[in-house]
Amino acid sequence: MRTRSLVAGVGVAAVLGGLAALAGFVVPGLSATFVFVTIVGIVAGVQGLRYALGRRNVDYRSTDTGDPELRYRVPTPGDDVDRRLVGAGGWRRTGASNLRTRIREVAIESLVLHDNCSPEAAEEHVEAGTWTDDPVAARYLGADVPLSWVTRLSLVVRGESSTPARVSRTVAAVEAIHDGDDSVTERRRERGRDSAADTVGEGRP
Amino acid sequence: MRDIETNRWTGIEGAALIAGAAGVVLQQPSLLLVAGVGVAYTAYAWLSDAPDPRLDVERTLSETTPDTEEEVRVTVTVTNAGTTLTDLRLIDGVPPALEVTDGSARLGTALRPGKSATFSYSVEAVRGEHVWEPLRAVVRSPSAEREHSETVASTEETTLRCAPSLEATSDLPLRGLTTQYTGRVATDVAGDGLEFYSTREYRRGDPLNRIDWNRRARTGEMATLEFREERAATVVLVVDARRESYVAGEAGGQNAVERSVDAATRAFSSLLDSGDRVGVTALSPRECWLAPATGADHRTRARELFAANPALAPTPSDEPYYPIVALRRLRRRLPSDAQVLFFSPLADDLAVTAARRLDAYGHLVTVVSPDPTTGDTTGHRLARVERRNRLARLRRAGLRVVDWGERPLATELARAGRRWSR
């Protein structure tokens, strides 16, 4: 504050001195020699350049008036999930694990309500990945289902290895529990039994 | 009231100084003249100030109590009671629940002292009481370097009040909890009625027309016919108007609470017409309670409540809500023989808890659930699955649930009625 008033005082004195010289008074130490005027000009130029360059970091400002003519916007259920998927790019750890828990619970509840599983059996299905035909969805909810390198590579190439894409596939798998006419887990179990029988059959000489 | 610098002239002093410096160093008088122009502009930007506007605002509506979906023309006249305003922008405070359908609620103009400017626009009326917010006036200095913004209330408060018409819907399938009064809900009680229920041994004094004469002719025994008694029910319509229930499938469309209240008004009418006692309440931080009753006065009171009660407003309240306390209070208020029609989008688990708890206390609950979910993004699809699970959970618990999608409510009710009577 003190330096500012000091600089302002010097400035006012310089302006008054200049005006006095203009009016014909003799001001000590001030003579309009070429060198002096040039130095003053250069100082003014540098200062001017500083001001002009300061403009680069400045944006126009105006009052934000909002949109009173539109209706009050209410959210759609699920907007929070979309925001999280888009905003964090799917990489923030805590958000991702919360979402995973939420989808896991929805999957278990869907199996209980629509597939006539007991809660324990539903949890086992999710744990083992036998609740869906989609290995990506099964793996997303924590099951240790094998996924071949070729499939993984093709997922990466097609850009479907990101968290949002995996979440989307998992949600689609949960929707399939609701939409399917027959039980998903039963069907898979039967198929598993058949394929096991086939393997045994092939293994015989 | 707020003053800001628009930064439109930032750097003009730099331009003046550079021109001056170049003129001095290169000894060019014409450049010094350019610097003089720059100094003049700098002074213009710095010294002119945004005036403090003194405005009189008058707002008139073509209709203050319209029907729903009716177009209402709003005319705003602004008079300048202060100094000259060279740059005046006006933005009218349209209530949040209304949408401008024609014209613009904004005006940009210059106003000399004593002069007026008028602009008008149309809004579509929706149910509720809508109060206009103050008009916002933004004034700029002539150079537009400074901007001043403030709100100006109109001389009289502008209110649009739109009451629902209380149209009845098709008959609501009610559950078996009834009062002692005659009505239309078929009960499992033998007595007077239309539908045959049972026969019993003749007792002295039974009316002649109730005696089973066929049986008398066949066996010689006297027996009396009994019919299923039809009684009136006490129904309380509970609208879930918590903040979480203000959701909609499409931006700007009717939200779930508006649809719930719409369904509740129809249900109210049709129940009252069939002689049931109907009450209205809401799960909301704001107070809303209309005790069950019948009659024309009650209908008028309900219409008033649906139109103006803040708990049923089309926009949510910011007040805190304590669901457990509110539920306990609701339970104390409910008459013991009251059924509950619960209108909720079931957007969270608390709605399910509320419905199940009321049902557990013996108030047979029927849930009418407007569907706010869509299937366009992953998150929306997940929310849809979650809501379907909630519906399934309620149905498992023995509650009746009407999932109200895009089709008219009457259609959904008819379908649900068929399912329940099976």
TrEMBL record, chain A:
Keywords: Membrane, Transmembrane, Transmembrane helix. Residues 179-205 are annotated as: Disordered. The chain crosses the membrane at residues 30-53. Pfam families: DUF7269. InterPro entries: DUF7269. This is Uncharacterized protein. It comes from Halogeometricum pallidum JCM 14848.
UniProtKB/TrEMBL annotation, chain B:
Coiled coil: none annotated. InterPro entries: DUF58 (IPR002881), Ig-like_fold (IPR013783). Residues 199-358 form the DUF58 domain. It comes from the Archaea. Signal peptide: none annotated. PANTHER family: BLL2464 PROTEIN. This is DUF58 domain-containing protein. It comes from Halogeometricum pallidum JCM 14848.
